[in-house]
Structure formats: structure tokens, C-alpha cells
């Protein structure tokens, strides 16, 4: 396994529409392994392949919380070619962040519950009802596969402000 570099706003690759995974090859398994290592290292709870510059419809996620003793048992999950097949009318608001927009958090409103269809690494199809943090996280990550970022849901003022901040920071790094 290897930690890969996470691309950061305003990298234009974040706006690409990712392509479906046609076959789970050893390279896809390696990519998923690397994404988990990258995500745990960051640390984050979800990562889309495009965030490590691979425009493929592949997501890693781990929503495990520490137990009473403070230990966290990892619950790694892979979503290949995930799709939202239905969404509740009811909305919920979560404060979201993104490993490609570090140290920036804002409240985003999304459907409170969604039904998601996806393939696992063995090529089996699953359908699950997601709610709470799972619903928010899977919607956020599927957005990445379509070139959408959570800041797109904010007011133009807020979005312009964060884009400007990250564009400036990127310039500083280059100089
Ligand atoms: Ni994100």
C-alpha cells in the first residue's frame, strides 16, 4: 500500500466526470488499498478516486467511531460505480469538510435518506438505504465522481471567498 497525493482546490481535475470501473482488476484493488491508506493517514472518512487524480467511479469510506475505551475498529467500505437511486424529500444539514479543501467546513443541506446501488470489490451488486452521516458522506463522495464539490452548494459569496483563498495559497506554493 502507498499513500497517494491528494489533489487540492483549485486543481481542475476535481471538476472531471469520472468514468465507470469496467472490471475489478489488480490495479483497481491496489488503487482502493492506496485510497484507504491515504484516507486513514489524512485522516478522513471518505475519499473519491479523483481526489488522488484517478478519474474512476470508486469511493472508499470508513464511518467507524471510537468505542467507550477510545478504540476504533476500522470498517473499510468500497463503493464501485455507486448511484443514488432514490432520495427522501426530507432534508438534513451537516457540517461538511473535504480532504481536497483542507480546514474548511460549512453546513450543507442534502436529502436526509438515500438509496444507493453499488458494486463491491468482488463485483457483487448491493442496494442499501443510507441515513445520517452515511447518507451525507455517500452523496458528498458521489458528487466528486461528477465533478461537484460541497462548496458548490454554498452561496456565491462564500464559494468565491473559499476559491480565492485556495487559489492564492496554490500560487504561494508554486512561487
Ligand atoms: Ni470531499
Give the key terms:
globular, Peptide Deformylase, 3 helices, binds nickel (II) ion, five-stranded antiparallel β-sheet, 175 residues, two-stranded antiparallel ribbon, alpha+beta, 7 strands
Walk me through what this model shows.
The chain has helices spanning 26-41, 132-145, 156-174; strands at residues 46-48, 58-61, 77-87, 91-98, 101-111, 113-119, 125-131. The two termini are 32 Å apart. It is an alpha+beta fold and 175 residues long. The relative contact order is 0.18. The radius of gyration is 16 Å and the shape is globular. The mean pLDDT is 96. It is 28% helix and 29% strand. The chain has a 5-stranded antiparallel beta sheet with strand order 1-2-3-6-7. Strands 4-5 form a two-stranded antiparallel sheet. It has one domain (12-174): Alpha-Beta Complex (Peptide Deformylase), CATH 3.90.45. The chain contains 3 helices and 7 strands; from the N terminus they run αβββββββαα. It binds nickel (II) ion. Nickel (II) ion (NI) binds at residues 98-100, 140, 144.
Amino acid at each position: 500500500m502507498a499513500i497517494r497525493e491528494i489533489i487540492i482546490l483549485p486543481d481542475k481535475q476535481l471538476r472531471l466526470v469520472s468514468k465507470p470501473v469496467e472490471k475489478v482488476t489488480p490495479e483497481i484493488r491496489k488503487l482502493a488499498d492506496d485510497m484507504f491508506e491515504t484516507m486513514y493517514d489524512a485522516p478522513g472518512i471518505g475519499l473519491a478516486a479523483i481526489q488522488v487524480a484517478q478519474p474512476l467511479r470508486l469511493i472508499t469510506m470508513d464511518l467507524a467511531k471510537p468505542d467507550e475505551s477510545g478504540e476504533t475498529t476500522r470498517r473499510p467500505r468500497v463503493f464501485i460505480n455507486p448511484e443514488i437511486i432514490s432520495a427522501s424529500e426530507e432534508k438534513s444539514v451537516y457540517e461538511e469538510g473535504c480532504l481536497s479543501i483542507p480546514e474548511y467546513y460549512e453546513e450543507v443541506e442534502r436529502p436526509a435518506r438515500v438509496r444507493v446501488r453499488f458494486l463491491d470489490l468482488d463485483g457483487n451488486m448491493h442496494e442499501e438505504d443510507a441515513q445520517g452521516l452515511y447518507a451525507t458522506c455517500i452523496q458528498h463522495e458521489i458528487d466528486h465522481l461528477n465533478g461537484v464539490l460541497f462548496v458548490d452548494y454554498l452561496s456565491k459569496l462564500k464559494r468565491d471567498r473559499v476559491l480565492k483563498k485556495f487559489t492564492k495559497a496554490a500560487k504561494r506554493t508554486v512561487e
